[in-house]
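ok trying again, last paste got cut off:
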Amino acid sequence: MVYQYKFEKILTLRSREKDEAQAVYQDTVRKFEDAAEHLYRLLKKKEDMESFQSERLQKGLPVQEIRHHQQFIGNLQKTIEHYQQMVINARNRMNYQQVQLMEKNIEVKKYEKIREKDFHQYIANEKYEEGKMMDEISIQQYMNRGN
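nice, full thing came through this time. structure:
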């Protein structure tokens, strides 16, 4: 008799769901990293712009150019705030997908543990049945020798 796990289809389905959750999680991680990297570049650009303006102010700068720099930095600040919100949202989605992945992983582990226990029970039953058959054969051989 061949061992067949009674929940094999469920385990296969749950494993597929776990793999899909893994792929979604990896995608959210990539999106988070992209948003965070873009935010970093914007912050670096703002810092460079402010230090450039500070250097230019030391040497003297026309009022029109100061206004231009201030307006540019103001627009950059709005973009930074937008990307900060994007990073927060991406982090929240990433954390949510991580929780989902962990739940799927736990569920698959449960079914694998059940399969393992079921297989050990199957082996024990097979050994028991084999022992019974060996006893019957021994009894029949003994009875045949007696006749």
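cool. The two ends are 34 Å apart (CA to CA). Residues 21 and 101 are 5 Å apart (CA to CA).
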